[in-house]
Amino acid sequence: MALPSAIADLPTRLMAPTVRRLPNGLTVIAEQMPLEVVNLSLWLRVGSAVESDAINGMAHFLEHMIFKGTQRLQCGEFERRIEERGAYTNAATSQDYTQYYITTAPQDFVALAPLQIQVVMAPRLSDDDFERERPVILEEIRRADDNPRRRTYARTMELAFDRLPYRRPVLGPTAVIEGLTAQQMREFHDTWYQPQSMTVVAVGNLPVETLIATVAEGFDQAMAERNPASASTTDLIERFKPLLPGDLEPPFATVRRFAHTDPALTQARLVMAWRVPGMAQLEDTYGLDILASILGRGLTSRLVRDLREDRKLVTSISCSNMTLAHQGVFMVSAQLPTEHLETVEQAIAQHIDTVMAQPVNQAELRRVQTQVANRFVFANESPSDRAGLYGYYHTLTGDIVDGVNYPAYIQQLGVEDVLQAAQRYLSGEAYGVVALQPAVV
Hints:
This protein is an alpha+beta fold and 441 residues long. It has two domains: 13-235, Cytochrome Bc1 Complex, Chain A, domain 1 (2-Layer Sandwich); 247-437, CATH 3.30.830.10. It is 42% helix and 18% strand. The chain has a six-stranded mixed sheet with strand order 1-2-6-3-5-4, with helices on both faces. Strands 7-11-8-10-9 form a five-stranded mixed sheet, with helices on both faces.
């Protein structure tokens, strides 16, 4: 399959971004859209995967601390200035990246964008603020532990990965968070929050050159105000080394099972998982994306139609192909009465065997390809949507073409491509399975 690989291949009828590398190493992506709003997103290839076990949760903790002010902005001042102009800001941390963003009116962008850059690049990170925020992080961990959906996900990731840091929680464990220090955080920030390892995206109704110039000036100002942490103890931070193909975890050789009683549940949860390629092998993920839609996305998908609509064995069921930077997980997730666990697991395995044995039909493939094309258009109508697409793909693959041309890649696949993806990565006889059951009354 020949894949588009150059900016010239972008669907310029819909998108026309400018990608520019600044002298300080920062990548800026800018695009003017005729909507009276501007989104600025700062992306870093920094998530829980770069942490050592000793500082697991640091990236997320730092995300919170970014908003505690700088030497020039007191705690709460940034949010006050944002709110008084009707703008808003937020952030997110995952296994593979951290993102900070602000959405403003075009006339406010030049004033507010430098503030967002300043809090991210030159935060105060004081000992007092650190200690005040620690209980907030610990409470967030407790809430996550009390959430059945998040508990199920955590156990699935622990089962899916033996060695890769994806098996650890993004929030970190309580014991680690209780032992972290503000100095460790300052060293972590100084190590990872550098322009050359960042992608900044600005999309909205301002000229491209205005967007880029505002970002560039904001970074120059922030870096001039930055106080680097002491280099004497930076060896406390163990960088996550880039993976080599041999470091990826092999497919399951048998059925690996995790069963657990969860008193908070009223119905059982079943998750079946297969180890599959990640963003580092992006071309190998497209067939699996199609299979996930055919099996478990929408009322006409095979698993939904069979197990929920026809046989009524499950309350809900879905399928997803989670593509992380280095490796992914193909998952089927169901909520169901406990007495149906064995039957549903066998039925899902049979469906997997079927997609491995015979090609999907053309009607199913066309349905998914149409859905992908339409969802892509609908999901990229706003500046924040567009900034998210560009930032995510450039951060994880180094090329926005991979994201913008995603519908084209899906459209080029045939039934034999999908069959080969199933045969190469899935199995009805070897997978991981998590079964969580309510307590017996």
